[in-house]
Design goal:
By secondary structure, the chain is an alpha/beta fold. The two termini are about 45 Å apart. This is Probable arginine--tRNA ligase, mitochondrial. It catalyses: tRNA(Arg) + L-arginine + ATP = L-arginyl-tRNA(Arg) + AMP + diphosphate.
Length: about 625
């Protein structure tokens, strides 16, 4: 594994540099593959060794690299040492590289990359992740509930709600009520007053208000759980800010007892985080009527979670519009005396622009999921040589979700997200569809040839450039995981998996298994199995369920022949995944998705979809707002 090679290189460097090997391991990195030229396997950045140098004048980096390389010697692990621009490069013995990497991938399975020494210095941690945060009684979209909206919804249902509609389709009806009451409130100030009074009653524990809101909450969570399951997301806890209604009053009392609470002439209560009256550092924690605010309840929630979980780290995943809010929450916790506030982190993500929730002009996540599944099903059904799948609905949904997730994760989390159906279903290039296609094709190879060839591995049979490039790329997986764990950006994993899939596609064309000598075929199958394993691991980390189902054999109409494996099957599977469909045949299946309703080109996603960006498959303790 990469860390074994790193340690061997670090041990030799430590003898020359008189530094502990542990201090050098993270300075030794696997070299990214190059399409233009053969590259070394590992490199040491000499500049990183000089970062802590006490010399006022830094020596010439290139000269230092050459001097260091001259002091090092090749051994049973390192077969060649060279220098690059400010680096010392190491080439690993090719047969050892092949044997070690493939053995480690198969041996570690889903833990490959996570057992690296890059992670060994990190102690086990308990991490609480608050993400998704959908709004009670509202479908998944980008809107973030504020306290006044709670009151609007409670008042709106009393004015415009119907019990029958609430029973049959709770979220849809409550959203309709929400939109209608907002429109009415624009011209009727009395509605805003009623909404404020409803929220005040809720804070004061009015039984009728609490009962109505609890009902909205229960109905909402039932719907959220159903949609979460489609995304492969499962929670340890469902809790919302309204859960901390009473505890928020305790926070206000604590702030007052510490002399941090200040009353304004308007009757509100604020905390001056700057200590000198800087208006930009004033955080309002209580309304003039005594009711709490967002910040107050988030502080109460943080204190409660520390008491309950004793976490090492707590991460809030929300849109970037809440950046200042969480800065103030963390700062307030700190001045209240909670040193663990430094363990709280906000991970912001960009939002989709162009739609206004209050007008009801929004496309919901479930509509998007249904649309993706429908389009994929139509692609699959319209292929001329279709093979039947055991569960086409499930396959279509998994491929569609992969397309959505990869499009969402390719860039920086903080970047605003512009949704496009054309990009989601792009038939070629760096897409989630391509990842699923690659995984399914590699799985098909294992099913076709695995029983006869997966025995002893002859490493001498994997010295072609295509094989070496894949092995070098597999070396980097632990570094990619480590980098994503440090900056919490999934784009590193996405980029890695797309490159791995492209390498596999090239190798699949040139490294034939069928009709090759047994030792050659076996070695290549080991290589493809390792690629599929790492590809599956990475996809699961992103919240993508890999497609492994192989189309069953079916007789073609009018030919009397069956569809075989190999290249023909790959072409068919490619068509199934990539959407090379017969439009005429597709029309016979029913109207195209574009005719079902006028889908907009920009879709507003809620925090739930953006929560894919961090924690689809990790342990979670999320909450919802409201």
């Amino acid at each position: 594994m990469a860390c074994g090679f790193r340690r061997s290189i670090a041990s030799q460097l430590s003898r020359v540099l008189d530094l502990p090997p542990e201090n050098l391991i993270k300075s030794i990195s696997a070299v990214p593959i190059s399409r233009k030229e053969e590259v070394a396997d590992f490199q040491l950045s000499v500049d990183s060794l000089l970062e802590n140098s006490n010399d006022h004048i830094r020596p010439d980096i290139q000269v230092q690299a050459k001097k260091l390389a001259e002091k090092l010697k090749c051994d049973t692990v390192v077969s060649e040492i060279s220098t690059g621009p400010g680096t010392v490069n190491f080439k690993i013995n090719r047969e050892l590289l092949t044997k070690a990497v493939l053995h480690q991938v198969i041996e570690d399975g889903s833990k490959y990359g996570l057992k690296s020494e890059l992670f060994s210095g990190l102690p086990p941690r308990k991490v609480v992740v608050e993400f998704s945060s959908p709004n009670v009684a509202k479908k998944f979209h980008v809107g973030h509930l504020r306290s006044t909206i709670i009151g609007l919804l409670g008042t709106g249902f009393q004015l415009f709600g119907y019990e029958e509609k609430l029973q049959s389709n709770p979220l849809q009806h409550l959203f309709e009520v929400y939109v209608q009451v907002n429109k009415e409130a624009a011209d009727n100030k009395n509605i805003a007053k009623l909404a404020h009074e409803f929220f005040q009653r809720l804070e004061l524990g009015d039984i009728q208000a609490l009962s109505l809101w609890q009902r909205f909450r229960d109905l909402s969570i039932e719907e959220y759980i159903r949609i979460y399951q489609r995304l492969g997301i499962y929670f340890d806890e469902y809790s919302g800010e309204s859960f901390y209604r009473e505890k928020s009053q305790e926070v206000l009392k604590l702030l007052e007892s510490k002399g941090l609470l200040q009353k304004t002439i308007k009757g509100t209560a604020v905390v001056d985080l700057s200590g000198n009256g800087d208006p930009s550092s004033i955080c309002t924690v209580m309304r003039s009527d005594g009711t709490s605010l967002y910040a107050t309840r988030d502080i109460a929630a943080a204190i409660d979670r520390m008491d309950k979980y004793n976490f090492d780290t707590m991460i809030y995943v929300t849109d970037k519009g809440q950046k200042k809010h969480f800065q103030q929450v963390f700062q307030m916790l700190k001045i209240m005396g909670y040193d663990w506030a430094e363990r709280c982190h906000h991970v912001p993500f960009g939002v989709v622009q162009g739609m206004k929730t209050r007008r009801g002009d929004v496309t919901f996540l479930e509509d998007v999921l249904n649309e993706i599944r429908l389009r994929m099903l139509q692609n699959m059904a319209s292929i001329k040589t279709t093979k039947e799948l055991e569960n086409p609905q499930e396959t279509a949904e998994r491929v569609g979700l992969a397309a959505l997730i990869i499009q969402d994760f390719r860039g920086l989390l903080l970047s605003d997200y512009q949704f496009s159906w054309d990009r989601v279903f792009q038939s070629r290039g760096d897409t989630g569809v391509f990842l699923q296609y690659t995984h399914a094709r590699l799985h098909s190879l294992e099913e076709t040839f695995g029983s006869g060839y997966l025995n002893d591995l002859n490493t001498a049979c994997l010295q072609e450039p295509q094989s070496v490039s894949i092995l070098q790329h597999l070396l980097r997986f632990d570094e990619v995981l480590f980098k994503s764990s440090q900056d919490l950006q999934p784009r590193h994993i996405v980029s890695y998996l797309l490159t791995l899939s492209h390498l596999a596609a090239v190798a699949h064309k040139t490294l034939q298994i069928k009709d090759s000598p047994p030792d050659v075929a076996g070695a290549r199958l080991h290589l493809f199995k390792a690629v599929r394993s790492v590809l599956a691991n990475g996809m699961k980390l992103l919240g993508i369920i890999p497609v492994s189902e192989r189309p069953s054999v079916r007789r073609e109409e009018g030919t009397g022949e069956t569809s075989g494996g190999g290249a023909d099957q790959d072409r068919e599977l490619s068509s199934l995944m990539m959407g090379d469909a017969d439009p005429a045949r597709a029309r016979r299946l029913g109207p195209s998705p574009g005719l079902l309703q006028p889908w907009p080109d920009r879709i507003l996603f809620p925090p739930t979809t953006s929560s894919w960006r961090l924690a689809q498959s990790s342990p979670q303790s999320p909450s919802h707002r409201g």
